[in-house]
Design brief:
globular; 4-stranded parallel β-sheet; 3-stranded mixed β-sheet; 38% helix; 13% strand; alpha/beta
């Protein structure tokens, strides 16, 4: 098995910030590899005795990598060690390093950084294809690519992305191109390609707007305006699904779109966090027009992309589950349930 991280972003892999560390797990029989990355895709970890790699990037990716190592080990009641050490894709992982590997989970990449289109192409596309080629040469049974629901955004959300954020466009485009080139690379080979498109991932090292919303609640600030819903998925459920995919003998659809089937507005998330943290806003929510004005002012002062903040607050980013029924898999958590709140 191989897994990795997608650095800085709000996942679909999007949890801003940086996490790094080491983990350990136990395994025998199956071998696994882990790759992770920041401004360059970094890292490799291997199970079946010892493993090398570095998970350095967004919180959900690193935590998912650790969880995969531990979960796969626990499920087999095996023994071994998982260590995370630095490396760089694709050069640090040759076909020989993937010998006897059954499944590769590829999460490495960059997301929503101030990077050039060339950097997104080099890291999110070219390095991904290079790793897939080496997996094919090594006879890996399954290559699981963590893409994003943003790769297929259409309608209002896609229009807003183009108008307001070149970073979002470059990220989505790189994921879309990578999917296409991975299909071409692995089609007809002995390595099965599975494209995994998670929605916004929460749980664990939350950063970005979810972390800001938590601070907002702690400061007793008013609820956001109504509207603006998005799909989400708990990291714990994404880990459960990944462990299902870790069994190459298990028949799997080529494309999986992963959400918990619910729609979350900023207002709903704010209400859940208020209940969970025992906070109440000290002020009523202002009119919608004042929210929009405040977002525009914030973007002028802090954001290189005018209109981004209001779009994230009010825009719709809803995705439909795809492929999960064929696996008889159903997410068990909602955002409220992850906070131990009653439904």
């Amino acid at each position: 098995m191989e897994c990795g991280d997608e650095s800085r972003g709000e996942c679909s892999g999007e949890c801003r910030g940086e996490c790094s560390g080491e983990c350990s797990g136990e395994s025998s029989g199956e071998r696994s590899e882990e790759s992770g990355g920041e401004s360059a895709p970094e890292g490799e970890a291997e199970r079946k005795g010892k493993a090398n790699g570095k998970a350095d990037g967004e919180g959900y990716g690193e935590g998912l990598g650790r969880g995969l190592g531990k979960g796969a080990a626990d499920s087999r009641q095996a023994s071994g060690e998982l260590r995370l050490l630095p490396g760089e894709l694709p050069d640090s992982i040759g076909a020989a390093a993937l010998a006897s590997v059954d499944v590769v989970f590829h999460l490495a990449g960059i997301a929503h950084q101030h990077a050039s289109p060339e950097a997104y192409q080099r890291i999110n596309v070219d390095a991904s294809v290079a790793l897939a080629q080496r997996a094919r040469e090594a006879g890996v049974a399954r290559f699981v690519f963590f893409s994003s629901t943003k790769a297929t955004q259409t309608g209002e959300a896609a229009t807003a992305m183009v108008e307001h954020s070149n970073r979002a466009v470059d990220y989505a485009s790189s994921k879309r191109i990578a999917e296409r080139e991975l299909y071409a690379c692995l089609d007809g080979s002995g390595t099965e390609l599975v494209i995994l498109r998670p929605a916004l991932v929460y749980g664990g090292c939350e950063r970005g707007h979810l972390a800001l919303l938590r601070r907002w609640v702690d400061w007793h600030l008013p609820a956001p305006p109504p509207g603006g819903c998005r799909s989400m998925i708990a990291r714990a459920d994404l880990l459960r699904l990944a462990l299902v995919l870790a069994e190459p003998a298990h028949a799997t659809p080529r494309l999986l779109t992963v959400t918990d089937g619910q729609a979350y507005s900023a207002q709903r998330l704010h209400a859940a966090l208020c209940r969970a943290r025992g906070r109440r806003p000290w002020f009523p929510s202002p009119p919608r027009v004042l929210w929009k004005t405040a977002c525009e002012l914030y973007d002028r002062l802090r954001s290189p992309s005018p209109g981004t903040s209001w779009q994230r607050l009010s825009g719709e980013e809803i995705s439909v589950q795809e492929g999960l029924d064929e696996l008889a898999f159903s997410p068990s958590l909602s955002f409220e349930r992850s906070l131990n709140l009653p439904s």
